[in-house]
Amino acid sequence: MTAELIDGKGIAKQIQRELTEEVAHLRETHGIEPGLATVLVGDNPASKTYVRMKQRRCEEVGIHSVGYTLPADATQAEVEALVSQLNADPTINGILVQLPLPGQLDEEAVLNAISLEKDVDGFHPLNIGRLAMKGREPLFTPCTPTGIIELIDRTGVQIEGQEAVILGRSNIVGLPVSMMLLKRNATITICHSRTRELAEITRRADILIAAVGRAEMVKGDWIKPGSLVIDVGINRVEDDTRKRGYRLVGDVDFAEAVEVAAHITPVPGGVGPMTIAMLLKNTVTGAKHAAGLL
Ligand code: NDP
């Protein structure tokens, strides 16, 4: 069996097209222009690149974006003052504080300071708390996990009643995606670095999510035939045949897994492109919410 590829890049482009239409409609019909503020503290090159990419995507769909950069030695009070100012700014519907923050800053306190209504990254403790509770709905869910659910839905695979195994329990990916799958009535098993007999557990998975950050750890014989595999991992492995000296691989041994699964995401081009698409979607949702349209 050769699995069908889940084309995250194509799906993210499709979502961007849908959002472009929606943003144009919001502007024409309701005079609304969704706005996203990005906050970058320091000059971490990777963070700068992520912020730039997010701003560029905003422009492409018609979301107004404003970038704020604070020096690496910014104080807690300075960062929180900026967040408060953005909370009060009616032209801003989403506030994205690029993580990680420099060591002197209390990340949780900064995320806590973001208004619930503008928490487009979905990391506010209240939004996460609601995600973890039965019968409560968060206003926003974190972007990478939301992108994963969107990929599964657009593949047409049912989530309800399926056995889902999640490798990894981070606050950014593993834990929230587990909660989202549970809310959608999957039966979930969450694995981590202390889990024993990993392969035996993953072999039960109708839906397998790998988010551990270990290159090609999940082998073909860890996978249930006919299952859906989402590979979140982004790992560099040395490759002298490439000009840059490395290539990117996932947490799943793709060459083996593609022969066993029915659906699989590639790395790159799977989950990666979905994260920003979901940030844009959350920002548009924030704007609709602020305008009383939801
Ligand atoms: P973290 O390092 O925060 O978490 C890794 C998780 O994997 C932890 O829960 C850890 O367990 C678990 N783990 C580590 N080693 C093993 C092992 N040998 N067996 C079983 N479990 C293990 O990573 P993130 O969740 O932030 O990211 C995971 C991967 O996803 C990375 O490659 C990252 O680059 C990628 N990523 C991709 C994104 C995207 O595509 N947009 C976005 C975010 C991340 P424990 O809790 O016990 O330590």
List the helices and strands and how they pair.
Elements lengths: L3 E2 L2 H23 L4 E7 L3 H17 L2 E7 L5 H12 L6 E4 L9 H7 L11 H8 L10 H13 L7 E5 L6 H10 L3 E5 L6 H5 L4 E4 L17 E4 L3 E4 L7 E4 L4 H4 L5 E2 L7 H19 L4
Helix pairs in contact: 1-10, 2-10, 6-7, 6-10
Bound molecules: NADPH dihydro-nicotinamide-adenine-dinucleotide phosphate (NDP).
NADPH dihydro-nicotinamide-adenine-dinucleotide phosphate (NDP) binds next to helix 10.
Features:
40% helix, six-stranded parallel beta sheet, 294 residues, 10 helices, Rossmann fold, 16% strand, binds NADPH dihydro-nicotinamide-adenine-dinucleotide phosphate, alpha/beta
Can you characterise this structure?
This protein has 294 residues and is an alpha/beta fold. The protein has 2 domains: 30-115, Leucine Dehydrogenase, chain A, domain 1 (Rossmann fold, 3-Layer(aba) Sandwich), CATH 3.40.50; 143-272, Rossmann fold (3-Layer(aba) Sandwich), CATH 3.40.50. Helices cover 40% and strands 16% of the residues. The strands form 3 sheets. The protein has a 6-stranded parallel β-sheet with strand order 1-11-8-7-5-6. A 3-stranded parallel β-sheet has the order 3-2-4, with helices on both faces. The longest helix is centred in the first third of the chain and has 23 residues, at 8-30. It is globular and about 55 Å long. The protein binds NADPH dihydro-nicotinamide-adenine-dinucleotide phosphate. Residues 144, 167-170, 172-174, 191-195, 198, 211-214, 232-235, 271-272, 275 line the site of NADPH dihydro-nicotinamide-adenine-dinucleotide phosphate (NDP).
